[in-house]
Amino acid sequence: MVEKQTTGHHVDRSICAWFWHQYNHHRNNDQMSVVTSPTHYLFPLIRHGIIFLACTQLELPPLLPIEFLSRFADILSDYLCAGSGAGATLNEDIVKDNFVIVYEVLDEMMDNGFPLTTEPNLLKDIVLPPNLVTKVLHAVTGNSSPSVGPTLPHAAASTVPWRSTHPKTTTNEVYVNLVEQLDASVNRDGNLRRCQVYGEIQVNSSLPGFPDLTLSFTNPSLLNDVRFHPCVRFRPWESSQVLSFVPPDGHFKLMTYRVKELKKIPIYVKPQLTSDSGNCRISALVGVRNDPGKTIDSIIVEFQLPPCITSADLTSNHGTVDILADKTCRWSIGQIPKDKLPSLSGNLVLEPGLDRLHVAPTFQVRFKIMGIAMSGLQIDKLDVKNMPANPYKGFRAQTQAGDYEFRS
Amino acid sequence: MAPPVSTPKSASPSQPSGKSEVTDLKLQLRQLAGSRAPGADDAKRDLFKRVISCMTVGIDVSPAFSEMVMCSATSDVVLKKMCYLYVGNYARCNPDLALLTINFLQKDCHDQDPTIRGLALRSLCSLRVQNLVEYLVAPLAAGLKDHSSYVRTVAAIGVLKLYHISATMCHDSDFPAALKALMLSDPDAQVVANCLYSLLEIWTQDAANSDEAAREIETLYGKSIIYYLLNRIKDFSEWAQCLVLDLVSKYIPSDNNEIFDMMNLLEDRLQHANGAVVLATIKVFLHLTMSMTDVHQQVYERIKAPLLTLVGAGSPEQSYAVLCHLHLLVMRAPMLFSSDYKHFYCQFSDPSYVKKLKLEMLTAIANESNTYEIVTELCEYAGNVDVPIARESIRAVGKIALQQYDVNAIVDRLLQFLEMEKDYVTAETLVLVKDLLRKYPQWSHDCIAVVGNISSNSIQEPKAKAALIWMLGEYSQDMMDAPYVLESLVENWEEEHSPEVRLHLLTAVMRCFFKRAPETQKALGAALAAGLADNNQDVHDRALFYYRLLQYDVAVAERVVNPPKQAVSVFADTQSSEIKDRIFDEFNSLSVVYQKPSYLFTDKEHRGPFEFSENLSNLAIGGDSGDDVIHSAQRYEENDKDLLLSTSDKEENGGPTHNGSSTYSAPSDVNSSRSLVSSSTTQPAAFAIDDLLGLGVLDTPVLPPPPALSLNAKPVLDPGTFQKKWGQLTVSSSQESTLSIQGVASLTAPQSLIKHMQNNSIQCIASGGQPPNYKFFFFAQKEGSSSFFLVECIVNTASAKAQIKIKADDASASDAFASLFQSALSNFGSS
């Protein structure tokens, strides 16, 4: 438990115990995002099993602490996990091993309850992240270099606070990644009730100097609503729908957007349930509709067995079916084979006394399509100005299922 | 807003524990303290880390304080940071030892490296030890003039910390003025933001005691500063932008051009990646256009898309907070969102509190064009695995039915629910069908045919059972076997645990008796006998009442129990529009999430408890008033809680039943006059009784308004009744008036105004607040009449303005009362 008292008003630690009790108590139910305790209002934020908690007694914009906490969580995992290999996520042990870093970062990020420096690039100049270099240095010389930067960054005074004045990388490349999340719900008659796409443009830039980038789309009119990273200039977007920006160093989210009212979905599930005299026959078919032209990967169909079911016997002609501890049935399909349609069938036994199944489970589908953005958004070109040499530019696109559900 | 990171508590082996650990650390630290050996710094670093981790897991390592300070003379930055952290944590409990740290902290404040200067200054200000403040002033003053912007940002916040330790010291050193100068001139946006933050907090707290501070606050909201900040808004960090936008939302522009300029300037903020900025901008927009209806509507159109994106794109925590705001907007202007209904469809993976909000929104935006789609969607939820949500969605269908004109399709749907044969679906649907029939009696034929097939044995829930029994009684002429069903229910009287059901049963049997006497007579006798023997006081009383009524005159009894009914046109709203308006004013705050105005949940802790004057009847007897008020103005915590409870109750019940009358205002009795009953509780008992009987003699004899309004000198009203009335009545008059200068001067404490108003026959029931804002609840009674006037009066001594809201039983006299109240208020201080 790391705590930071920000104002003169002392918050007792017991509040955490109280919250912990509540949290365990409600674990199975839903957790509210603002919790009222007898003395404070708490904002919990749960990431990778670690709970970040903010307390207040005053009225304040609720998004302020929530946004701050999520920013803090992002930065912390950026700090602590970058050194320990790709794919590592924040966990209890990492935090425990790095108490000091956590305090140092928190100290810079917030003073007296008011957020201070939250740009990762700036922070890294003030508090050096624990990385491989310092570890090696420590092992070799036996004298660890201070984890504090020798000088202060002066980007704080510059016009682009998100970019430090001395970027360390000179690999001279920039990657643009389009990641889309497809939400769809289909009702029991097979009609598409709604379908929309949330997308993100992630950029990983390692360009020297002070590059000026312009990203344009072939079909920007598609976008329904957009939100930008602070580095994006607003005027060019308004006048000609291009993104003009000076990128921060490293990974960042350039833009998030929403496209609504899509008419096509790539995958369908046809569930069928018939029940009578204590038994319920279940069958489900999965198939491709409106072939996106790329392979659909890691397809998983999940549904929750209703509590009134005592036992289930399910088989499929492709992939594996597991019933997890919380009565979730997971059917991992992977890719759809060319020659047949994957289907699941089986029998559910209802509780004694129940004749028919009254509740209808919802089938949730997860999948991934590489190389295509389902919304149809396409990047036209990326211009880089203000650069001595032409950098390498990489583009990727990917669609994955968000809330993609079929009701039965 | 301390964000401590709490990790699951598990006893990991690496976790140090116990006292011996601390003494051990102490020993090692002492050994290292003087050492200048080459490896000493590393050894110290390890030790410090252990101390810090002990501190973090909650072991008290303060005994090692002096050793830590001894070790702190170092040039290593990491060591310094850890030491600052330790000192900051324990200085408060070791004020004497903290003095030891001052020396090296002060030295560090003159270090060459700005990082160290800043860190030292921050730690120095965070010590929070009263007797050390004198050492703070010089480093702070130097820090504010430092050439490094980093040190200046730290110093700006440091001033605020100093203020919290010792306000006088802060003022004596003239720091606020220095901050203001810095704010208006500094090239670094973060410094400006921190100055603004500190100044706002300092002056807001000061405004209570000094006019100067109040004036300074006014200048912060003034045109020049707002413009200065707005022009730099893009330089600020996102958090500072939130602060500035919050300030801007309190600024009142002088003309429309100004409004449009500001909106144009801020429009791109709506596309900021940070949700907090987006919401703050929306608040500014809404406030700016409050007076321009058409532009206000356009603003709604403009903010719709960003809000919907925020809901979908963020983490679950973020999207809930945004959804609450969206909920508020949807409730205010459902028409504008009617085409976006698909966004409010529930996802399977949504947590149930989100689903609940979405259902409410779907209910609100349903209109002629989208009802079919929405109801179809809602019906799918009825089969949801999540039972509470299935119930909620059935209720939502019912609510839509009640607010629509074309209910044909919906009634069919509801009746289909009854055929699903799921007990909770049937239960919810029955309650809805009952409400529906009260509004649309013309559907009775269709409904009754289906309801008649439901076996009363299969229904367990009291509410549903009561609804079914009500329908049996009400439509007994159309249901063949109604008397026999009722009879079998009466036979099982003993097994019926809910008094509500028994009450309904009594009434239903009575009704049935008047329609089909021969078949019901036996059941009625049994019911009355069982009712008279019932343990429940209400059931007993009602049985006795019916019995005597029948004894007295059967015809009268029929008129009482079975009066001709008119359809209910509007069901009472659950939340008064006043509260809704207030929440709207507090957009982008917790109020929205809690769906309560902030004074209901922050007042008790921060603005001082509401003081309820001791029961006013005592006062009236006690004669002379002033001193008594002060003595008896005790904290009425319970009442305060009641205030909280009453609103939340209202929200939950979703119906207009009041505690006092709930037993009698069961739908069977007051069907015809339900909406009237709510006001009847405000009438004296005699009228209330008439009303409860449903005789329709509701019209309180309204006295013709006397030429000049005279007030009862000693009215009596207890706080509970006051609250109830306040909740029921609508604002009949709302005004703003100005206090005289003498008035403001003499309003140092609420009691002075209370006494003054009492001399004018206006009694205070509750008061609270801290300067400059006071809040009073007054009441008065018309001489020779039962009608009360209730007043909420918010006085701001800084601006010498008073906001008055008047609610009156007798709205016709409220204008006369308003002028009387105003003149009394403006006389305040001059007498």
Automatic annotation (TrEMBL), chain A:
Signal peptide positions (record):
none
Against Gene3D superfamilies, the record matches this protein to:
3.30.450.60, Mu homology domain, subdomain B
Show the SUPFAM superfamilies listed in the entry. Answer: Second domain of Mu2 adaptin subunit (ap50) of ap2 adaptor, SNARE-like
| Cross-referenced InterPro entries | Adaptor_comp_med_subunit, AP2_Mu_C_sf, Clathrin_mu, Longin-like_dom_sf, MHD
Q: Tell me where in this chain the MHD domain is found.
A: 171-407
- Give the CC-aspect GO terms: clathrin adaptor complex; endomembrane system
Give the UniProt record's GO annotations in the biological process aspect. Answer: intracellular protein transport; vesicle-mediated transport
Q: What's the superkingdom here?
A: Eukaryota
Q: Keyword annotations for this protein?
A: Membrane, Protein transport, Transport
Any Pfam family = Adap_comp_sub
| Cell compartment(s), UniProt | Endomembrane system
Q: Which family does it belong to?
A: Belongs to the adaptor complexes medium subunit family.
Q: What is this protein called?
A: AP-3 complex subunit mu-1
UniProtKB/TrEMBL annotation, chain B:
Q: Name one GO cellular component term.
A: endomembrane system
- State its location(s): Endomembrane system
Task: Give one GO biological process term.
Answer: vesicle-mediated transport
Q: Where is the composition biased (Polar residues)?
A: 7-20, 656-666
Example GO molecular function = clathrin binding
Domain Beta-adaptin appendage C-terminal subdomain per the UniProt entry, residue ranges = 709-826
List the signal peptide residues. Answer: none
Pfam families from the UniProt entry: Adaptin_N, B2-adapt-app_C
- Where are the annotated segments for Disordered? 1-22, 646-677
Q: Which UniProt keywords apply?
A: Membrane, Protein transport, Transport
Q: Which InterPro entries match?
A: AP_beta (IPR026739), AP_complex_bsu_1_2_4 (IPR016342), ARM-like (IPR011989), ARM-type_fold (IPR016024), B-adaptin_app_sub_C (IPR015151), Clathrin/coatomer_adapt-like_N (IPR002553), TBP_dom_sf (IPR012295)
Which superkingdom?
A: Eukaryota
Q: Where is the composition biased (Low complexity)?
A: 668-677
Q: Which PANTHER family match?
A: ADAPTOR COMPLEX SUBUNIT BETA FAMILY MEMBER
Describe its partners and assembly state. Answer: Adaptor protein complexes are heterotetramers composed of two large adaptins (beta-type subunit and alpha-type or delta-type or epsilon-type or gamma-type subunit), a medium adaptin (mu-type subunit) and a small adaptin (sigma-type subunit).
Q: What does this protein do?
A: Subunit of clathrin-associated adaptor protein complex that plays a role in protein sorting in the late-Golgi/trans-Golgi network (TGN) and/or endosomes. The AP complexes mediate both the recruitment of clathrin to membranes and the recognition of sorting signals within the cytosolic tails of transmembrane cargo molecules.
Instruction: Give the similarity note.
Output: Belongs to the adaptor complexes large subunit family.
What is the name attached to this protein's record? Beta-adaptin-like protein
Organism name: Rhynchospora pubera
